Amino acid sequence: FVLSMILLLLTKEHYGLAVAGFGVLWWKHHKDENGLWLTGSGLVALYLVIFQIMPYFSGGTHPMFADSHNSLSRYGWITAQRWDFLSFMMRTPSYNPILYIVSLLILLFFVPLLAPIFLLPCAADLLANGLSAVSMPRSIYSYHSMTIIPVLVIAACVGIKKLPERFRKQAREYSYVVVGVQIALVLIMGPVGGNLSNLWHVGGYTFAQEPEIKQIQMLIPENASVSAQKNIGVWFASRERIFPFPDVYQGADYVVVNTKYPYDHQVSIFGNPYDAKQYITQLGKLNADGDYSVIYNHDSWLLYKKKGLY
Q: Collapsing DSSP states into helix, strand and coil, what is residue 86?
C-alpha cells in the first residue's frame, strides 16, 4: 500500500491531495496514526511539488499558474485572484464545475454520495478539472475523468451496502441499469464504428499516404524550427523546436499547413485539432505577413519559409 502511494505521488503534480484522501480513508477505518501520517505526507508533498519544485524548475512561476491567456495557464486566474472568472465559470454551463460533478454522479444515479468519504481519493482530480480555465477537462467525453470513474464506482458499491435491507435487494437491478446506460452512451456518442453520433469520428485523415509530406520534409533542414498545424505536426516533430499552428508561428523558420479540414463534423472538439475561426484568422495573417513566402503549394499543402533564410 505504501509503495502504491509513493507511485501515486510520482504520477501527477496534484496527487499529494489524492494520497491525503487515502490517508483520511485509512484513519476512518483503522483509527491509527498511519492514516494521519499518510494524510500529512500527502499534503506536504502537494505543497512541495506545487509551490517549490514546479516554480524552481520553471525559473519562476509555473506556466499553469501564470497570469496569461494561453491554454497552459489553467490556474493563473487563482494566483491572480481574478474572481470574476469564477463568476463566469458558474454562469457558463461548459465551464461550471458543479454541473461537471453532477454529470459524473448522474451516470451512477448519485449513489456514490451515500459513501462520501470514499470519494476523497478523487478530490485531487475533481479540483484540478473543476477549477481549470480550460473547459475540456470538465467534459465527460475527455480523458481527464478516467481516474475519477473507478473511485465513483467503488463509492457506489459501498453506498449500496449502506442502504436499508429492503433497498439493498435491488442492487443487482441497479447494476444492470448502470451498465446498460454506459453501453448506450458508448454506442451513441463514443468512438465505435457505425454509431449514431460519434464526436470523435475522423474522416479523410489520409495524410500518411500523401506524397506531399515526404516532399515537404525534404525541403525543411533538420535544424530548422517549424510551426505545424496541430493535426499534421507529428510528421514534422523530429527536431529541436516545433510550434503548434495556429497558436504560434512568429519566430518559426518554416510553417506547414494543410487547408483541408480533416473532420467530418465542421466543428472542433475542445479546440482540437484547432479552432476553425482562429485557424482562418491566423492563416490570413500568415499570408499577409511580409516575413514569410510560400515555397511549396500542392493540393491543399502549403509550406512557408521565413525570408532571409538560406
A: helix
